[in-house]
Amino acid sequence: MPRRLWHRLLIGNIVLIVAVLAGLAIWQAYSFERGFSAYLDTIAVEQAEAAARRLEQAYDSEGSWTFLQRDDGRFGALVGGRDGTERPQQPRHASESISPRSTAPMSNLDAPINRPPRDERDRFGEPPPRPTPEMATPGAAGRPDQPVGPTPWTRLRLLDADRQQVAGLPPQHEVLVELALTHQGQIVGYLQVPRVRTLSLGPEQTFSKLQTHGLLVALLVSVLIAVGVSVWLARNLTRPLRALQAGIEQFQTDALPVRLPIDRRDELGTLAQRFNAMTQALHDMQQERERWTRDIAHELRTPVAILQAEIQAMVDGIRPATPEQLLQLQSECRRLSRLAEDLSLLDLHQGQGFACEPEEIDFATIVQAGVNRFRNRLLAQGLNVSCTPLPSAPLYGDPERLGQVLDNVLENALRYTDPPGEVRIGMACDADHVVLSIEDSAPSVPDAALPHLFDRLYRVEASRGRSLAGSGLGLSIAASIVAAHDGQISALHSPLGGLHIRVQLPLNRVSS
């Protein structure tokens, strides 16, 4: 089964859209993770600055870090702000050391914080122990493999002045920032903040999963919408092509002009318009070829029939083989030979014009020579010939072909002008062109016939005697020769009552 174009368009669009959306989703997830991690790092640094102030205050009160080594839960309470000792301070940059501050005595650091009265403790029992950093590690007692809660400070690490660990977790990540802790202008320790590489805390992970889930849902919905739009677009684009295919099949079957509906203004609409014009042109060409064949058969049938009848009459003894009868047969043979030559000439140069050998000539000389050739024949037919003075008309052209134009036009006047009559030849020049006019007297030509006089095998009156009527190719050949010289030929009504043939040729231009 051959692949259809709309299938290819659909698959191509789907692959492209899925690739773009998948790339966008990957980039969005990557950007979200980096941005959210940076946000958590910022929060961790701000919280670490506050924790650093509390640790400095505790060091001012205790004088060393040994109190943290005795009570691991104290470190978590200090950095988590659960001992009530934090003072409102302006945040500081990570690169700045924390200088000593004048604060209240820290003698109450060891006291229980926010504890209920004794009788309440006796009533409800001792409160649960404070969370220690060890409880946040995987595998610690209590809740294995789970963090204590969303407390970024559980990842902090405290070092003494010799960079020996005092409290906190061993470093598991790259250190984001290190805050120096001071006492009376001396550095007494360092508080390290790790860089968050993965979202390890419960709320952060939940938020990240929700974002990822929403992104996947949006991606799926976008793909479904894109597939629907792609199906509609692919079928809509290929619908004119399917109509074109059906039109071609119909034209091959019926050989009649096919009219495709033109309801678009894009390239496909232009294609349908060109197809309609092509089928109409092919149909007209086929009809012209059939008419041309019929006309040729008709033209050949008449002289052949005359020859056959005359010869058969001589064979049967009806007519004697006199010189007059033989001359009549010779005339019919010449007419048949001329018709075959004209047909061959038109067929040879159809669609590409006559092959000419141009040279620099004076068109007035060609016209004068043609008039001289036909003068005696015209006078013998009872037609008066008048030729106005011919101005010099230098141009580039084939003298033999241009002489053939003049011969065909004068031959047409000789055959169809009633005696007594007149044939008038005139020529005029302007800056760019020379115009030759050949006019004859009655009979005239109907208005409807004027545009068809240069068609092949066309005659105004089919009832004229065959002895006078020509082949109907003379003016058609003349028009082809004039077109080969980049000129124009036209037929008009003559003031003398007959036909006026007007030939216009360019001066000083090489013919095509």
Automatic annotation (TrEMBL):
GO cellular-component term (any): plasma membrane
Cellular localization per UniProt: Membrane
Keywords noted in UniProt: Kinase, Membrane, Phosphoprotein, Transferase, Transmembrane, Transmembrane helix, Two-component regulatory system
Domain Histidine kinase: 295-509
Lineage top rank: taxon: Bacteria
Domain HAMP: 235-287
Claim: Transmembrane is one of the keywords in the record: yes
EC number(s) from the headed UniProt entry: 2.7.13.3
GO molecular-function term, one example from the UniProt record: phosphorelay sensor kinase activity
UniProt protein name: histidine kinase
Source organism (scientific name): Ahniella affigens
